[in-house]
Design a protein that fits this description.
By secondary structure, this protein is an alpha+beta fold. The chain is built from 1 helix and 3 strands; from the N terminus they run E-H-E-E. A hairpin with a 5-residue loop joins strand 2 and strand 3. The longest helix is centred in the middle third of the chain and has 11 residues. 0% of the residues are buried.
Length: 83
């Protein structure tokens, strides 16, 4: 299964594309814990997706903005997603 999330913001500099998955990493230096964000969102999201056997990838969109792609394997055992 593929889930795509598109964002119209400024995107992420290519040199920072993998670094944004590091815990407590913020690209916007004007933000801190008091103004919003702890730098854990993408770290948690990637780990959650990986725990389900999937991948989370980021890429800049050609016209600007960001694309997040979540790839998850198909459920096995008759397609049930319940534990």
């Amino acid at each position: 299964m593929l889930v795509r999330i598109e964002h119209d913001g400024p995107g992420i500099p290519e040199a920072e594309m993998q670094a944004v998955f590091e815990p407590f990493r913020r690209l916007e230096t004007s933000r801190d814990r008091g103004t919003g964000g702890s730098g854990l969102g993408l770290t948690i999201a990637r780990r959650a997706v990986e725990q389900h056997g999937g991948t989370l990838q980021l890429s800049n969109r050609p016209g600007g903005g960001l694309l997040a792609s979540v790839h998850l394997p198909r459920p096995q055992n008759g397609g049930s997603t319940s534990p």
